[in-house]
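Example for tutorial group B:
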């Protein structure tokens, strides 16, 4: 009896695995964005100086120390565009009201070129907010909440209008794996084809 080769039956064409390679190349920008996110999230001390310069060329940091006896909630602001705007934190899902416990510190990042730091809103859990003035320093301390000036209404409105979480970051990370999946599929089909020919 003659054995029928299923791959040579009329109407059936073998899957062209190069399509997966093409899709991997077309979606490669997603992978680049994901890699940039991970590099940006790493501490500068873990990156070679040349890599840190390219990834964080305009990024600056402000470390805030809470020397008071209560938990405070911080939101960085810029007024570069004529109105108070919350500065996004690219490596965090949380985008405002960052909790800062007593005797602890937090580091907030900002783009020194496009979104320079104009001030930091300091709030209590009950919504009472004050302003921590900023300058060119990299370290600030809060000794007493009551000693800070009251936050202006437009700054408070900007906080309430800004989303507390940015779930687009999760989507970007998910999309960054798409070219990897396509490439692994291309490699897998190549191995299967080699085994079939062997």
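The residue assignment follows.
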């Amino acid at each position: 009896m003659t054995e029928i080769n299923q791959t040579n039956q009329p109407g059936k064409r073998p899957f062209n695995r190069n399509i997966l390679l093409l899709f991997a190349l077309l979606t490669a920008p997603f992978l680049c964005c994901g890699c940039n996110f991970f590099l940006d999230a790493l501490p500068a001390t873990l990156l070679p100086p040349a890599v840190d310069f390219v990834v964080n060329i305009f990024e600056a940091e402000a470390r805030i120390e809470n020397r008071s006896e209560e938990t405070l909630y911080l939101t960085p602001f810029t007024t570069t565009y004529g109105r108070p705007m919350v500065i996004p934190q690219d490596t965090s899902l949380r985008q405002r009201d960052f909790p800062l416990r007593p005797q602890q510190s937090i580091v907030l990042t900002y783009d020194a070129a496009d979104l320079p730091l104009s001030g930091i809103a300091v709030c209590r859990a009950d919504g009472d907010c004050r302003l921590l003035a900023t300058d060119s320093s990299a370290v600030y301390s809060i000794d007493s909440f009551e000693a800070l000036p009251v936050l202006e209404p437009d700054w408070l409105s900007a906080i309430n209008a800004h989303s507390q979480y940015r779930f687009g970051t999760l989507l970007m990370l998910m999309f960054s794996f798409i070219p990897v999946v396509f490439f692994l599929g291309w490699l897998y089909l190549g191995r299967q084809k080699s085994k079939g020919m062997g």
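The first strand starts at residue 59 and ends at 66. Compare this with the pattern of hydrophobic and polar residues in the output above.
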